[in-house]
Design a protein that fits this description.
mainly beta, seven-stranded mixed sheet, 55% strand
């Protein structure tokens, strides 16, 4: 079965950095687009960044220039490097992919940015 396991969240000060990882299993990882979403309390889940199997990327306007999504197909892992973090980046971050028309989510990892 498909499994997505996130790690790397935590508490960081305003302006700090974190790197999130998402290890995938049960899919042909190298051909799958992968995405990072986030959900803050009281808000809808939103797309943060996505990367295609070919390595093309797109970002939410709010994180452009600060976050970088990348993938290592040899490790079936997608990363989200987050720099210059702001308190408004505080949220639960989720890894996502679609396989056989089914959308899969990881369990989420909490990112908290203190001011």
């Amino acid at each position: 079965q498909v499994q997505l396991v996130e790690s790397g969240g935590g508490l960081v000060q305003d302006g700090g950095s974190l790197r999130l990882s998402c290890a995938a299993s049960g899919i042909i990882f190298s051909i799958r687009a992968m995405g990072w979403y986030r959900q803050a309390p009281g808000r809808q889940r939103e797309l943060v960044a996505a990367i295609t199997g070919g390595g093309s990327t797109n970002y939410a306007d709010s994180v452009k220039g600060r976050f970088t999504i990348s993938r290592d197909n040899s490790k079936n892992t997608v990363y989200l490097q987050m720099n210059s973090l702001k308190p408004e980046d505080t949220a639960v971050y989720y890894c996502n992919t679609v396989s056989a028309e089914i959308r899969y989510w990881g369990q989420g990892t909490q990112v908290t940015v203190s001011s």
